[in-house]
Amino acid sequence: MPTTLRAAAALFCNFWEVPTTPSKLVADPVGDPASAAPTAARLAELDRLITRCTACPRLVSWREEVAEVKRAAFRDEEYWGRPVPGFGPPDAAIGIVGLAPAAHGGNRTGRIFTGDRSGDVLFQALYDVGLASQPEAHHLDDGLELFRTRITAPVHCAPPANKPTPEERDTCRPWLVRELDLLRPTLRAVVVLGAFGWQALLPVLADAVWEVPRPRPKFGHEAHAQLRATDGGAPLHLLGCYHVSQQNTFTGKLTPAMLRGVLERAKELAGVR
Ligand code: SF4
């Protein structure tokens, strides 16, 4: 975008800040999630804003470098190379919160958990318990649908070594806060994949309408906490599940039966049949 046009836009939209790190792939950057996220009136609008985010210089550089260099097996593909929004319908009763997109998974395909081994395990289990239309996820146009379920992450860009910094996690937080706000009318249970997602999600829930007990509930596989809603609405059930990473699934720390068990429990608690 020409500098003059961006400057003019900034006069009308205070979140159109010039990004710290210029992006080669995002033509109309959003530089401040805290200002931009509350402006989204619908999930689809939020998702579009997220894909334009350039707030974290290190992650912008990394996601675009990965998209340019590519893995040999995908060298003929065009990588997404931008932030990856949540996936699933706006009337979701069950949320699934992971960590961040994978460099050659979501960062390649543009959909969370799509095109990587972790996603293979997750989507097979979602299909087995009736929450997905098919057991596989390959690319944005593969026809996959989720039923009453939305998958998202506390960090929307692929981080080096799968490790976002605390600052990057906090910068990305407003996107998840707004996503939970928009899902609030129907959301009844959240399955958190792994300890990082659990730690990242608790303050988001506390910022929203749910009371996080003190001491804070600890992460563990099949951990369960019921969070009272301060708006007088339905409580939220928080469920822990080991992450679907290869480190856990290849070693048998997380088996398909264990994953299905947590998803079935989430269905039951959320009243999804
Ligand atoms: S991690 Fe989140 S806040 Fe940072 S650039 Fe990506 S979408 Fe924006």
TrEMBL record:
Gene3D superfamilies: Uracil-DNA glycosylase-like domain (3.40.470.10)
GO terms classed as biological process: base-excision repair
Domain spans labelled Uracil-DNA glycosylase-like: 85-263
Record has tRNA-binding as a keyword: no
Gene Ontology MF: a single term: metal ion binding
Keyword tags: 4Fe-4S, DNA damage, DNA repair, Hydrolase, Iron, Iron-sulfur, Metal-binding
Protein family membership: Belongs to the uracil-DNA glycosylase (UDG) superfamily. Type 5 (UDGb) family.
Descriptive protein name: Type-5 uracil-DNA glycosylase
Source organism per UniProt: Saccharopolyspora hirsuta
